[in-house]
Amino acid sequence: MIYLGADHGGYELKEEIKRHLKEEGTGFEDLGTYSKEPVDYPDYAFAVADKVASSKPGDFGVLVCTTATGTCIAANKVRGIRAAVGYSEDVIRRARNDTDANVLCLGGGAMNHNEAIKGVDVFLKTPFSNAERHVRRINKIKAREES
Fold first, then answer.
1. Where residue 59 sits, what CATH number does that domain have?
2. Least buried of 1, 11, 72, 119, by fewest C-beta within 10 Å?
3. pTM of the model
4. Over the range 10-25, which residues count as b (16 or more CB within 10 Å of their CB) and which as e?
């Protein structure tokens, strides 16, 4: 399951991502916002992050705000979330491969829908490497999160 969320600055891009996921037959749940009316991004970041944190492995979140920064900061406040700002296919691939990111944050004002859709596809298709050095680093993050 893919959980989607956006504020007003990311609404249009979220809608494009939804259309793409639907065309691909990928299951998703849209947690809002549902218009371009001004809203507070933390509400949607927390909703998506809470769903991902309590879901099974292989479920992911995609958040969109104007820059991706705000939603990324908010999502990372939820235990178990490793949200990453994705601004290129390589960065997105490394976010999954190296850090096992489970939430992708995109900037609705920073990228066009073709770039975003390619990024989402890369995010969803890239597995975590499970390389010892990456596992060790993620475990350090988890330990800090638990303290």
1. 3.40.1400.10
2. 1
3. 0.97
4. bbebbbbbbebbeeee
Domain containing 90 equals 2-146
pLDDT of the chain, 147 residues: tens digit per residue: 999 999 999 999 999 999 999 999 999 999 999 999 999 999 999 999 999 999 988 999 999 999 999 999 999 999 999 999 999 999 999 999 999 999 999 999 999 999 999 999 999 999 999 999 999 999 999 999 999
Measured from the Cβ of residue 91, the count of other Cβ atoms closer than 10 Å reads: 13
Distance CA 128, CA 6 (A): 25
**Structure tokens belonging to residue 65:** 């705000």
Which long-range contacts (C-beta less than 8 Å, at least 24 apart) are formed by 83-87?
83/45, 83/49, 86/119, 86/123, 87/111
Alpha carbon distance 79, 111 (integer Å):
28
98 is written with which tokens? 């190296």
Counted domains in the chain: 1
**How would you class 125 by CB atoms within 10 Å of its CB: exposed for 0-12, middle for 13-18, buried for 19 or more?**
exposed
